[in-house]
Every structure is written in C-alpha cells, then in structure tokens.
Fold:
Amino acid sequence: MSAFHRAPRTVVIAEIGVNHNGDIELAKQLVVAACDSGADYAKFQTFSADDLVTADAGVAAYQQPAAGGATQQDMLRGLQLTHNDFLELKAFSESLGIGFLTTAHDFTSLDFVLSLDLDYIKIPSGDLTNRPLLERVAGEGTKIILSTGMGSFDEVAEALEALEQSGLNREMITVLQCTTNYPAPLDETNLRAMVSMGEQLAVGIGYSDHTDGKDAAVAAVALGARIVEKHLTLDRSMSGPDHSASASPSEFAAMVSSIRAVETALGSEVKAPSPTEAPNRDLVRKSLVAIKPIGAGEEFTSENIGVKRPGTGISPMYWHEVVGTKARRDFQVDELIGLP
Structure:
C-alpha cells in the first residue's frame, strides 16, 4: 500500500438540536441545509420537558432571552417534537442521503431513541454523571459519543469505567471535548485536553464546538478529532436558545470544506518522499563535484572537491569516505566525482 493516503475521514455532525423551534417543517429545512453543507449526520434532541427538568428549574444565562421569564420546563415544552416527528425526520434524512441522529435527554426518550437503530448513541454533557443512563446505553452495544462539557478528567474516567463495567468495549466510545457555554470563549476551548483524554484513557477523541467561527473545529481535526459536531441554524437571529451560537449554512459549509482540506494535508504518518516531490530530488539535492581540475592519481581533498547540485552523483553523506582516496581518472571543474 502506498504511504500516501488521506487521514481517516472525520465524521461531521450538524447539531440541529432544538433549532427547529418545535416546527417539523423548519426541522426538515435544517436537514436539507445540513446535507447541502456537507455534514455526515443531522442530529436532533429528543426529550420530554416534564421528564427532563423539574417544574421550577431555572434557565441558563444564554437561555434567558429565549425563555422570556418562563421556567426551563415551559421553554422546553415549546421546543419538543413528537416521536412520530422523529420517525418522519429519520426517513426524510435517509431519503436525502444524510445520516440521522438524535440525543435522548431522559429515560422515556432513551427507550424510543434506542429503538431507532442509530449508528451512534450520543450521551450529552448533562448526563456525564448519570450512571443509570450510562449503564442502560452500554447494554445496547452501539457506538457511543460521550460529550464531556463541565466535566473533570476524573468524571470522564468514571463515566468510561461505568460504560465498560456494563459491557461496552472502550473501542466503541468516542469522547468529545466540549465547553458548555453558548457561545463558548475560544480561550476556554482547551483542545489539548481532548488529546490528553485520548492518550490517557485509550479512547477515540472528538470535539463538540460551541465557539463562534470554524477555527476551533478545524484545529481539533488537525489534533486528531475523529468526530466534530457544531450547531446549525438557518438564521442566527431567529428566536430560540441556541440560534445565536450556531453556524449558518454557509458558515457550516466553510467549516466542512476546511476540515476536508486538513484531512488531506494530514496524510500519512510515514515519512517518505511524496509522488510529486520525488522527481525534484535529483535536481535539488547535491553531489560531490570537482571544484578544481583533478588529475588521475591525485588525492581527493577538501580543497579540490565540493558540494553542488544536482544530486545524481555521490551523496555528500559519503564525504569522509571519499576524502583521502585517489582519483582513478581526470576530473574537470564541476564534474561529478566518480570513484570507479
């Protein structure tokens, strides 16, 4: 096999989340946008507001404009889709040739999501410490995407142990570095934590991007992320908790394009001449040459031989083997030195 090939393809997930605002037609438009932007998957969030939060749970600072003074439960009720809606969205996604995923945020929703036979089960950051959910998911034997926002290294390690103890092979798990804020400050992205988790915990790594722009996501791929997800919206000015921290279709497409370019640039771990540079080697490298006329029988010295292009003669790496030997024939100035 040639040493020159692309790095493994990064799975790019368009996190539609709740940016459909509870409207299935808007959800379908977002699936189309995800497909057109080059994403591999369109992902949603499945939940029952009553099962997810208590009646008096507050809202995060970034959610306050969308909540308009309502409780988190009231806000989330307006962002729910039905199970039938998700079945329709799964079929619609598949008809477009894009994968479908959805994250379950409560146990009732989890049973439904597990019934969909998806390629991955996403465990959101809020459930990093939800042992009953971790154990339930691990028993399915499906590939797991574990988001680690707000988590410490020890909490991630404990979650992995819970999954493993429940029968899931660690090779089936991809851990996502994540900063749970919308938008997340670039200086709190900590992509090197993603790398260290992969090295120390022996798991695949990825990145859940909540920053503005594409820089962090592209850098994550350069550092070895095999999965990248980012929120997608049709319009960042739309009403809703996540729109303002999401990428527009054009922004998302630009990110995917940059990710694919980085994959190409990453290439192979093997250091060897590339197919296009090999023909340049003889022209750019150097050989031992005569810098003065040298007669047959005359000794090669540092005064009569030098190093010049092209590289079709004796490599300068053999300098010490040549100096001190005697010429077997005459050499003119700039003639490549030959020992025979």
